Amino acid sequence: MTVALTACTSGPEHPSVSPLAQISVEEGLDEAPNGIDELAPADVLDQSLAAMRATGSYRVTGTTVGGNTIDIAFKDGVGSTGTVGGNTTVQLVATPGAVYVTGDTESLAEQVGADVGTTIAGKWLLISPEAASGFAIFADGSTFAAAVLGADAPDGLTAVREVDGQPAVGLLFPETGGTLWVAATGEPLPLRLEEKGASAGAGVISFTDYGTEVAVTPPAEDAVVDLTKIPVPTATPTP
User: Fold this and answer.
1) Between 162 and which of 26, 122, 192, 226 could a Cys-Cys bridge form, CB atoms 3.0 to 4.6 Å apart?
2) What is the pTM of this model?
3) How would you classify the pairing of strands 69-75 and 224-226?
């Protein structure tokens, strides 16, 4: 069970201005009030990630070009809670020490053996360290931000545009063709990540709810099935 979320799709080209931002240009605003447009692209990314960490918490929502969905709230240093999905949606609670998931019983049973469907029905799964590696990105807000937003080096900046109702500057990533929109007023927080080929409803990841309280609460012990304690089915020898 894995959920792939990357900063941008592959491809060397990127437009001079991300297509989803072209529809909302703020006339008369030539410079970023917070001065972010005067910095080198790499410095803008560093300052944006630092501002993100300083808030302590944030929410990530959206759908990738590949069809994966995410709605996760992060509390830095504590973990995250929410849903991720591809063909099926998985609810998770992730901490640096444990990852719990729940969702469609049949889909989860396929991951641990078809004969345990009744065992895991209605339960949270404490997944093994090996399986949890696919969810490690969700265990810490800073790790997620660095992996998704810092996976590529930006080489340029757009002009100031209005994104999600506020002025922003776009960081352009040459290897992947993506654009990260960073607030041009106040702290340079990430606002939106657009993958190459993004269109309405796909390829757009939004960053919101900075500094709001996030409760990362592991499920009750009696609602958890520890997958490391479930015997792995073995094939019956052929006489």
Assistant:
1) 26
2) 0.81
3) unpaired
